Amino acid sequence: MVCILYNGASYQNTDSRKVLYLNGSRHSYAETPALPIRAISFSIMCWIKVLSLPSDHEVHIYSDWSEPHQFRIYISGWHEICAQLRNPHGHDIVYPCIWKTIPSKWMHVAFTWSRDRKEGILYIDGIIKGFRFHWALNGSDPNISLYNGASYRNTDGRKVLYLSGSRHSYAETPALPIRAISFSIMCWIKVLSLPSTLPVHIYSDWSEPNQFRIFIYGWRRICAQLRKPHHPRGLTMVHKIHLFFSYVQLINRKRHLEHSSVYPRVIYLPKRYIEKRRFAQSLIPFCVLFSHNQRKVIPNRWMHVAFTWSRDRKEGILYVDGIRRGGSRVSNGPLDLIENNHTVFDIGLKRDRMHFPTSDGYMRDLLVVDKALSGDEVKYMKDIL
């Protein structure tokens, strides 16, 4: 195959073989003929040895990335290897590997696209570096099941998932193996309306035995909760931390919010109060209370919600619009989620209370990775999705 070199690109001997050398400072690059990969399954792979990288700019490995864009394999501004495909409607599917490029080391990069399975996979050095599940939620994803009038609609210039709260709409993804690992979950939501007191789930595995949930609760707070295996004596020490306030809320469990239309009694106590309650099994229970001028989820506005769980640091962090809004650490005890045999996770549904309202609004770009992303990585994923 003919390869045309530009701006000082050349072939040089290194590590006992002749290879292509590109000088970033001289804007070197090379071209191959375009290949007929638009409507087929394909694989692209190569060896790279990066000498240096700019601090905040993307660097392309191989691509067709000018209007109309088609595909690219590249290194992000955070030095992570990624792949991106663009469909005929101009919508992108991003495949982040969340794997850092190591300067001056040869790395094998491969990307495979299965048109039949609608699945893209990135490999580094012949290994899938962790799982990555990205559902665009625009009708092109495999293994997404819709119920009770859930549908894909065009809004704000793109096709997204629509759930009707009045029709009890919801969707399902396959269950993912996140029980005993670090992970991050994120998506874009646009809420149209909310019930006054009942919780509305965004993404969850919340039926017995409950595992995790990201949801909107009570006073329109965005919340996250993980549940750990049952303690032998059914007794757990739970830290409840509410951001931006010097107190926490001790909820009267006899009138739990999820079982009553009346708000529970609230007692204000010192910030580091430890609540001892029987049969409480939460590993990470906390909500994000916004500052006074941003207190509520705003209807008809897109918001990016991300939750990260670091098993090593024993820490969960909740981000809204790329900004850290809450966090909680676990001091001791089990670090894994409760085990179950569920085969699906739910979008919009609180499965242990099927009669509760479902989400009423739009969602797009649901992403799950097996790593606790940093704040910068959350911001980056928010910006490219």
Task: Put the structure in a nutshell.
With 385 residues, the chain is mainly beta.
CATH architecture of the largest domain: Sandwich
Number of spatially distinct domains? 2
Compute the CA-based radius of gyration.
Answer: 23 Å
Helix segment tally: 1
Structural class: mainly beta
Low-confidence stretches: 231-281, 289-295
**Principal-axis shape:** globular
InterPro entries: ConA-like_dom_sf (IPR013320)
Pfam family, one: Laminin_G_3
Protein name: LamG-like jellyroll fold domain-containing protein
Organism: Pocillopora damicornis (Cauliflower coral)
Which helices and strands, and how do they pair?
Layout: E1 4-6, E2 10-14, E3 17-21, E4 29-31, E5 42-49, E6 59-64, E7 71-75, E8 80-86, E9 92-100, E10 106-114, E11 119-124, E12 127-128, E13 132-135, E14 145-147, E15 151-155, E16 158-163, E17 170-174, E18 183-191, E19 200-205, E20 212-217, E21 221-227, E22 235-239, E23 247-251, E24 266-270, E25 274-278, E26 282-288, E27 302-310, E28 315-320, E29 323-329, E30 344-347, E31 361-369, H1 375-384
Protein name: LamG-like jellyroll fold domain-containing protein
Pfam families: Laminin_G_3
InterPro entries: ConA-like_dom_sf (IPR013320)
